[in-house]
Records
---
Amino acid sequence: MRSRAPRMSDDRLLLSFFTLAVLALMAPAAGAGTPTVDPSTLQPVPPAGAACRLDGRFVICKTEFHEALESEPAFDLPCGTVYETSRDDRIGIRWYSNGLLVRRRVSAVVSGFWTLSATGDAPRVAISGHWNWWAIPDVPGGGMESETLTTHGNDLVAKAPGGRMIAHVAGLDQTDGRHHGVLNPTEDPMIAAALCDALS
């Protein structure tokens, strides 16, 4: 004959139900996290899709930006127009105090290529970039036109087929306009000539 499981006493049964009820009441509070904030109440309003939450004395908004270029005219060289195919992905964080923007940070990653062909044909120069910047409004709540900007990282790396470096802009750009690091931009006539050689 199969033995029966011992029967739970009424007291233990009541205690189990009480414990489950308390846990059920606590679950929503534990999962609620910090309260969300309506982005439209902030100045300036963050980009569309921003997720904003109250975190201590700040409202912190997380933003994303994604852009893909397909054979877009980028700039001109002595040998012709350079067309760019690339992807630009950025992740941003904004801090607001009393509803006003007080600082923001953005990290960007770009990868793609340049060509003299409007249809993206070879030869190509591979391009990449990985940099970030801090921006502090001159006054709380000010827009991008009135902020102090500091950037650092690899703004641009351009390599010929085979991996030879052609253009390279990297380092730290300070708010006073000074650049510390590598500065070999496409505007340099020698760099432009090297690009033409690689793309022709």
---
Amino acid sequence: MTPKRHTILLSRIDHDGDCHRWTGYIDGHGYGIFYAGQLNVPRVVKVHRYMYEHTHGVRLDPWVAVRHRCGLRKCVNPDHLYINYKHRINPNAYSNRQRGPRPHVWKWGPDSTLKDMNLSFLRMRAQCKYRKEPFDLTFDDYRSVWGTQWSRRGRTNGSLNITRKEKTGAWTRTNVHLVERIEHLDSYNREDKRN
């Protein structure tokens, strides 16, 4: 971000009180946003993420969530912001908030493989929640399990799928592995319809 845009960004922060409130634009989820790009290349920045990165001098991966200790989404005070690589700290805290990677981060991003992997991870997590299976797998764990084999996933003979080693255990990094599909899924569906 240019120094001029950084100055404009700082001018939209209300420093009264312990929480530094963002007074600019707010997205649909209640987080402060700022247009940091140029006229022909607009780039939307989440203000709390930018303040954390700028203060600590780091560049975070898109799936790493910056969280608020105070619980106020408009707060951009760097002392109230922290990161946690596990997708769940306390399951009862902020139960109305989205957890895990944010798919909208990759909307215009260059890496479609990460976007596909993220969407697959979110689908798998939602299915496990529906089936009431314990799920303690993070996106980084999911990515490390697939490694360079992501292109071999699928539903055809010879493709790879992720599954649990112990069927009754939780979905954790130590309890998942990749298995090669032997039969095509359609053959099972045809046999079920005949019986």
---
Amino acid sequence: MTNGNEKGQKYMRAVCPHLERWAGCRFKPRPTIVEPLDGWDVKGDLACASTANFPFSVECKKVEGWELTGLFESQKWPVWAWWEQCTAQARASKSRHPLLIFSANGRKNYVLVRRATFAWLKPQPAYGPIAHVQHPRREALVLLLLDDLVRTTIPRG
């Protein structure tokens, strides 16, 4: 059995190739202990090559015990707490866009973004539906699949 840190690091490593194809730069998980990453720009759970203009702070969660129906049924859905963590990290790293990527064993990779970020990126879903949702604190968000997000082009500037 793996512990939570090992599972989290493994999931972050699995997400990196998706973001690398999307952003055209290298990514790696942020170390679990605080240490300098020369030549890397830490954006939440992931670090990207400092030469990249990556406007997102990424939070990755691979956690069991949640259901998508919680999105519609519960203000205590665990994903809401993850979103709060993600937005706090985005503020701390001065990133313009929080990006929450999450999954559970046997499930697809989901992404939660602000509705304004979604409109800026203009993703066209090919692999799954998109859900426009309202965060309990009244923030307009969009839930979509990571595979659909990384098919978009990140606008420059």
